[in-house]
Write a structure and sequence with these properties.
Four Helix Bundle (Hemerythrin (Met), subunit A); mainly alpha; disordered N terminus; 9 helices; single chain; globular
Length: 254
């Protein structure tokens, strides 16, 4: 996201910038564990470094996209192995941390722009489809010992992830529209928040998908873990779609 407005007063140094970012974090209640406790902290460190280097949030977004793209190209083109899985996991997690850093950098610089938010979401939309698409390609090219039915897993994951992302963005947008029209904010339902939601959300954590690649050298094991993550995400999607539908029905009724 591209920042607008003037930069804040120059901090004392890298540590001061990190501390400043730590006081401006978005609420983490209910977020998946890695995203909440690891990725945001890594993003904070990278955002502080980007600030000192004079980088913009959009530049950080594009570096994040490049890191993820390199990893996904490797998945589609290189024979699965242990070294490849570890390298892919590292590049994906680096891209994920940079994806957190761009928003934190924008807040440090005074706020984001609509074009920056658009770029961030469009990159995420591409990533969702390509991520599972390259797994499909890899299983097709290199999974001769696997049954053909496993190719249905990444196809299903593309559907689940795309619907989840679109429904989440649309629900949030409809909440904002309703709040603007009626002059007050609509709070998200409180059920399932806190630690319970944090634990339930573990299978939906993008980092868990990234870390699953450490098993890429053992393709059968990777497919088992990947398939379980797909099943968990499908169940969670059904649950949250029902919840969001009820929430919007309540907004309509009010």
């Amino acid at each position: 996201m591209t920042a607008t407005g003037e930069s804040p007063a120059a901090p004392l140094g890298y540590r001061a910038i990190v501390r400043q970012l730590a006081t401006a974090q978005k609420p983490g209640r209910g977020a998946p564990p890695y995203s909440r406790w690891v990725n945001r902290r890594l993003g904070r460190l990278l955002a502080a470094a980007a600030f000192l280097m004079g980088r913009t949030p959009n530049q950080v977004t594009m570096v994040s996209a490049a890191s993820t793209l390199v990893a996904l190209v490797l998945v589609a083109t290189v024979l699965p192995s242990w070294w490849l899985g570890i390298l892919v996991a590292f590049l994906l997690l680096l891209g994920y941390a940079l994806d957190s850093a761009d928003g934190q950098l924008a807040r440090l610089l005074g706020g984001g722009t609509k074009s920056g938010e658009w770029l961030d979401h469009v990159v995420d939309a591409f990533k969702i489809v390509i991520f599972h698409g390259v797994i499909l390609i890899s299983l097709y090219r290199f999974g001769d010992e696997l049954p053909d039915a496993v190719l249905l897993i990444p196809l299903g994951f593309i559907v689940v992830s795309s619907v989840f992302f679109f429904a989440m963005i649309l629900t949030d947008q409809l909440r904002r529209i309703a709040s603007s029209e009626r002059g007050h904010a609509y709070a998200k339902p409180s059920g399932g928040g806190g630690w319970l939601q944090t634990i339930v959300a573990i299978p939906t954590d993008y980092a868990v998908l990234c870390l699953s690649f450490v098993l890429f050298g053992w393709l059968s094991g990777f497919v088992i873990v990947y398939g379980l993550l797909f099943a968990a995400n499908a169940v969670i999607l059904i649950a949250v779609l029902a919840r969001w539908w009820r929430e919007l029905r309540m907004i309509d009724a009010s």
